[in-house]
Amino acid sequence: MKILVLAWEYPPRIVGGIARHVAELYPELVAQGHEIHLITVEFGAAPHYEVVDGVKVHRVPVAYSHDFFHWVVNMNESMGNHGGKLMLEDGPFDLIHAHDWLVADAAIALKHSFKLPLIATIHATEYGRYNGIRTDTQHYINSKEERLVYEAWRLIVCSHYMRDELGRAFHCPWEKVDVIYNGIRPEKKKHQDFDRWAFRRRFAEDHEKIVYYVGRMAYEKGVHQIVNAAAKVAWEMGGQVKFVIIGGGNTDSLKRQAGSLGLWDKFYFTGFMSDQDLDRFQTIADCAVFPSLYEPFGIVALESFAAHVPVVVSDTGGFPEVVQHTKTGIVTWTNNADSLAWGILEVLKNPGYAQWLTDNAAEDLERRFKWSKIAQQTETVYARVAYERATSNW
Q1: Please, which pLDDT band fits residue 187 given cuts at 50, 70 and 90?
Q2: 209 and 337, same structural domain?
Q3: What's the pTM?
Q4: E strand or H helix at 258, and its extent?
Q5: Residue 213 lies in domain
Q6: Domain count of the chain?
Q7: Degrees to nearest 5, angle at CA 128 with 139 and 224
Q8: Sequential DSSP letters for 68-137
Q9: Do 203 and 316 reside in the same domain of the chain?
Q10: Are residues 306 and 249 in the same domain?
Q11: pLDDT digits over 77-136, tens only?
Q12: Do 54 and 69 have their domain in common?
């Protein structure tokens, strides 16, 4: 099949998880014999057209925009124009696959212009992020998501939790949605030769255990609960612990919070960290913590699995589907600092148990989260939609 994919982020432009998802899924579909054209946004010195791992990547310019939503409008206009030209000159295509609401307008326009079925992957919803829709901005985004959900022939989500969320947010029929987990390439976590102790001393003393978080500093990620849990963990560990917070964004409130609790010396805020340094860091860390308040899937947990770091997560969203409690990691109560502290201490105080968790997690990666298997599941959805389109009137 020939598939047109629309995604607003793709390497080297990485904003969130969509870029990595798209970059790792579609080469596997190419390997299975499909032709993939991916339209995304131009970025830096990246070429406007190139073939990456067999995927034909088209990066389009976006006209000057006075704010983010204007930028989204201009992006869709550019994607729609390029997609239409591509379909006329290099068609026919079999279907369109759109990733999230930001590319909805272009995807829906192309669907109707060329009478092609549209598949949409919904990675998250505005309703879920804020536990409801309240502001004008939220209403706007929610309306875009709702239309994409309605216009799609079928929908793909990354967890059973998200399938239920589409029902709550959009009254979407359960049978219209396919659950296909996210994946990861474990081999990308390279084990490098480097001076481990010299590198480790950049973050903690030799006698300190290292607990870390990596990701966005958004409220929904629950990083403030790590600070709340730190006092109990530090007391139980006799002060022999360091919390390392990795990621760009404003951390001022977290720093004030740590200071007000007398924990300033127990935290290290790194800011942005390169992938190379993060790969190194994960080999010297003792525990990864992700206390999200909202998490459709939790690919950060898979990255910890691949890096052989024991992981502690909250029981929100898709996390309990990804992390099997007391088997591949520890699942704690959402927005509960005492529960989070308990989970961290389970890992830090029981190194043999922590090793057992990481061994199980590595096996689970191969069993449930391998991209070749995920691509086969996606191919099944494509085949179903192509058959239904061929046997129906538009």
Answers
A1: confident
A2: yes
A3: 0.89
A4: helix 252-260
A5: 186-368
A6: 2
A7: 115
A8: HHHHHHHHHHHHHHHHHHHHHHH---SEEEEESGGGHHHHHHHHHHHT--EEEE----HHHHHTS--SHH
A9: yes
A10: yes
A11: 999 999 999 999 998 999 999 999 999 999 999 999 999 999 999 999 999 999 899 999
A12: yes
